[in-house]
Amino acid sequence: MPTPVPQIPLHHEASTSSILTPSPRPCAVPQHRLGASPLIYGTSCFAQLYNPIKAHWPAEACRRAIDLGINTFDTSPYYGNSEHVLGKALASIASTHPRETYYLSTKVGRYGPKKVEFDYSKERVRESVEESMRRMHTDYLDIVYAHDVEFVSVDRAVEAVGELFRLKAEGKIKYVGISGYPLPYLLALIPVLHERLNQKLDILLTYCHYNLHNTLLQDYIIHFKDLGIQTIWNASPLSMGLLRSHTACPDWHPAPQRLRSAVQDCISIVDKHRQGKDLAEVAVKFAMKWKGCEGLVLGMSNAKEVEQNVSWWEEVTTLKDDEEQGEVEDSVRRRLEGFAKMEWASPPIDDC
Length: 352
Hints:
The protein is of the alpha/beta class.
């Protein structure tokens, strides 16, 4: 009989002292506050952006995630057909896992890779929210971000976020946030949004800023908190597919060649410690150990990956992680230490 995989507690701070076992029927999530699980299910993988997936995987993975305590799904219309796939998957399990057992997080404003494919107009923001609700078969969204705000002007960002706050007042969304990559820009933009809209953002999402090759986010957390941002999510501990041993990095990845070369060295370091061990395990566990953020957004293609991540979470949060993990992590970090504060350009230089 396989070893049961423990359920993730709702609160990050409680996770080191109690790991709950799965209940026969999932509980409703809190509605008076955001009670998102510390692991967030990132569903861009449903659009096969990183690797192929089979048709039955999303429903199985969503069911398993909720059963094990992962109660929040993050998506975007920019992620191909991810919203459609997620909506279909959740609809297929609705009899046992109804809408009140999970949160939905999506985004507006970005609909393609280039700046010309952004639309932050208030009309498009409202339309986009309505489209997302239809795709995911719901009459409300828990969290909506203005997606990758660094690609548009400040005035456009104000317009889009202002419309999100109006939709919040109407009850169509519950929490308003922004997402983006360059931390200095986000730090400069947030007080402008607060002043011009006379409202504070509920949540911030950034990515590729706390992982094995980049820990810049830990320098900025206190400043975001000082601005009143109470909930911050760290996405992509695998740095958008860069930090994996057995799956090639996507061709579109913005990492410079010298970082890619260093990662190849790290793959060899990991394999030398234990043949066949995946750099991804080292990377995910490294991000899980950090308590600086309220949520870690992880892409998971199938139920097996869900179980694996929950198992790693238990190892990390109950201090059961083995000594070998610490040794290999230290070796990898030494090889990547020259990149710890490095950001690549966003928008890309050829799209400025």
